[in-house]
Amino acid sequence: MFKSVLHILFNSINQYPKKDLFIFYRDHHWQTWSYREVGEKVRLLAHGLMARGLQPGDRIAILSENLPEWPVTDFAVFGLRGVVVPIYPTLMPQQIAYILNDAKVKAIFVQNALQYDKITAIKKEVPSLEMIFTYEPLTGVATFDKLLQEGAVHAQSFPNAFEESMETIDPEELCSLVYTSGTTGEPKGVMLCHRGFVFDIVQSEARLRLRADDVFLSFLPLSHLYERLAGHWCPIYRGATIHYARGIDTVVEDIAVARPTIMVSVPRLYEKIANAMQEKAEQSSALARNIFYWSIGTGLEYHEKRRAGKVNKWLERRYRLAEKLVFNKVKAKLGGRFRHPIAGGAPLSVETLKIFEAIGLPIIEGYGMTETHLIIALTPPGEVRYGSCGKPIDGIKVKIADDGEVLVSGPLLMKGYYNKPDITKEVIDDEGWLHTGDIGYLDEENYLFLTDRKKNIIVTSGGKNIAPAPIEHKLKTSKYIEEVCLVGDKRKFVSALVVPAYEILKEWAKSNKIDFDSMESLLKNDQVLKLYEEEIERLQEGFARFEKVKKFALLAEPFSQERNELTPSLKIKRRVVEQNYKDIIESFYEEG
Description:
Elements: H1 5-15, E1 20-26, E2 29-34, H2 35-51, E3 59-63, H3 69-80, E4 83-87, H4 93-103, E5 105-110, H5 113-122, E6 131-134, E7 142-143, H6 144-157, H7 161-167, E8 174-179, E9 189-193, H8 194-208, E10 215-218, H9 225-237, E11 241-244, H10 251-258, E12 262-265, H11 267-283, H12 286-307, H13 313-333, E13 340-343, H14 350-359, E14 364-369, E15 374-378, E16 391-392, E17 397-400, E18 405-409, E19 416-417, H15 421-427, E20 434-442, E21 448-453, E22 458-459, E23 465-466, H16 468-475, E24 481-487, E25 494-500, H17 502-511, H18 519-523, H19 526-539, E26 549-554, H20 574-580, H21 582-588
Parallel strand pairs: 1-11, 3-4, 3-5, 5-6, 6-7, 10-11, 10-12, 12-13, 13-14, 25-26
Antiparallel strand pairs: 1-2, 8-9, 9-19, 14-15, 15-16, 17-18, 18-20, 20-21, 22-23, 24-25
Helix pairs in contact: 1-2, 2-3, 2-6, 4-5, 8-9, 11-12, 12-13, 12-14
């Protein structure tokens, strides 16, 4: 087992020195940094930080969107034996100030003038902050490149300082403080160490079966542990290449350029791809539409029988025809090399899972949390179980409490919440079990199924317990629905706040010759309301009567971070949403 995440990096550098590690777009063209180049930058940056007087244990924050400098800084701070504090670039200045003060951050790397201005606005409120560095050139501010130059000078005087520091890393020492975005209350600093990270990387990769020739497309924020560990450290462990998307809005275009074999994403992207495929089929001729759905049905039958070892020659021929007519064309649009989509961060709809499986791109679902150094469970490749987030990785224990809560124990548990021993004791019990806050169950083959967050369970006034997540995710499979928040705790029935897919709805309105002068007026139109009423009714087939949404409201604008309705990882803060839309919710339950 490796001593640290940094040792994993240098092990791959020794094996693949000339191989591309990072591919990124800058100065109007694609550029690359090899494994060897990254290793040298990590070494020089660590020397540069030493030259500036930074020492083991110092907290160093990173406030930036995804750039290759981000992971280089991450590794360099590890080499210094400092503590990395990732910060979401979307956070407001006061939210950043809270984290900087709580963690007692001494230095911070910012991406550009936008992030630099946030820090200068709050610097007087953060007495611990002594140094600000920037990735992009800014007048009067030390840049990443300047630190590399200073590091080269320092390395001449102290040639072995980096290697000596690296070898004194204690696997158990704090190496990163990751602040949970928190759907309730202030963010909590999760204390994480190399031993937990290395364990999670090695055991997760054993399930993922990555290869040195894999290419990952990176677009989720590195400030979230999901992208940092699953999208960076795991591929680096296997000597793979990481291709940065130019931005969240260019992901589809960048897929064609990067031609990735693996992509780490939240379910929403895969759901949008699946919806787009179905939308195209629906708008095609009757023949093309029938071929598409016949192919999907054939693909599902083929993969189901292949798992059972019951594929006959006739089914094999039908599947090869479906590949030629549909599947290969879809794969070509995804770059032609796509091997495994990886989904995490939220449950994935079974409908989306089935479409990707039929095509021959089985989605690997995962489940984890910051408090466990990330990954708890992963789907074994090619062994999907609909509705499940996979099996627990080797070396840990998972059990279900009497009230249905998922409990976890093993080497991947956090060291605790920083400066919050009382809250730590509430989450990790005396027997060493972490209480995840998720409700779920294990089947006879140890597949883990999650139903919802414990705190999200709606209890109606009639005493019925309702998990909102499965209903919300089912409703979001509609191409007309972007987001849903169910309400109804201590009420007679369940209602929903619905964020429409605005652009698709506008197109529908135009094709149905509905005039409107604003989104508000469009959402009040009787035909629109009827459309959503029918969609919601259609998608709730199979749910119990008491689980079904009885009333709903269409919102003219999406949930937003500016109104504090979403966490930085885009999870809904239900209490905030319920407060912000209190009048609408009350109207659902007015008598008569």
